[in-house]
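Bench log. Compound arrived from synthesis this morning; before running ITC I wanted a structural hypothesis for how zinc ion sits in the protein. Inputs:
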Amino acid sequence: MARLNILHHPDPRLRKKAAPVEAVDAQIRQIVDDMFETMYAAQGIGLAATQANIHQRIITIDVAEKGNEPLCLINPEIIQQEGSVEHEEGCLSVPDYYDKVTRAERIRVRAIDRDGNTYEKDADGLLAVCIQHEMDHLEGKLFVDYLSSLKQQRVRKKMEKWEKEHAKGAARKPAQAAAG
Ligand code: ZN
């Protein structure tokens, strides 16, 4: 297992669209395991492969407080959705920034698990928000894209400052629980 490097906004590699996984083989399972390790180490609740500069449609999630409900979604598709809900989001690729985004309240998602089996899952609350947030990453989209252009400019400035501070080798603060 290995920890992966997480890209930070505005890195253009976060804008690449991920390709579907053709077969869940040993290499894909290794990526899944590395993503879980990276996500838990960063105290995130979700990670898309795109964030680790791997442009395949793979997501890892664990929204349980104890971090004991790992969920792997390969080639995820939302097949049903209803309602809308506003939720404060964060992102491991946009450190130390949180803002409200409106998304579908309830979804049904179809995906492939780490063993290569297709499954469907109903989700609401934080899990539904997290799945939609991570699926956006696979399209090259970030949660800050939903904000006003003024706020987006502010986020960019904040990220430039963050990168400068952290490039000096300062210890990274652990990401907050809502980050994905
Ligand atoms: Zn994110």
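What the model suggests: The first strand starts at residue 46 and ends at 48. Residues 12-145 form a domain with the Peptide Deformylase fold (CATH 3.90.45.10).
ITC booked for Thursday regardless.
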